[in-house]
Amino acid sequence: MARISDADPDRLEPAVKAVLDAQAKQWGAPLLNHRVYARRPTIFRGARAMWSGLDASGLLDKRLVALLNRRVASLNSEAERVALEYADAMTITGRDTSEELFERVRRHYADDALVELTAVIAWENSSSKFNRAMRVPSQKLWRPRGA
Known about the structure:
Elements: H1 14-27, H2 32-37, H3 41-57, H4 62-70, H5 78-91, H6 99-106, H7 111-134
Helix pairs in contact: 3-7, 5-6, 5-7
């Protein structure tokens, strides 16, 4: 259970309610952290803007984004393995991404894709830290529906 209750559904701005309704349609329920973000509409809009920007950029293969988002897919390529190693290096507080690692990542991704990859990892990390601090539980969206 989250440490702070969700936004009051009866007091949501129409645009916020529309996003939560769309999430419910897509995943069976609104994203739990978005229900907490919705308490502060400006923060909610900022989080949604970041996700929209990442989704619209489109330089990264959707499978890689899913891997970074959920970290449960099997790794099939060197590019995916090095991207996950990069994500680990970025995520561990106090750990730096070495020049050697960055050069290995760069062999697989152009500069613009590297910006997107880094943004996806950083945003997932931020979201994860928010969820952990607020005790927002996993919705297990990485599992196939019905499993």
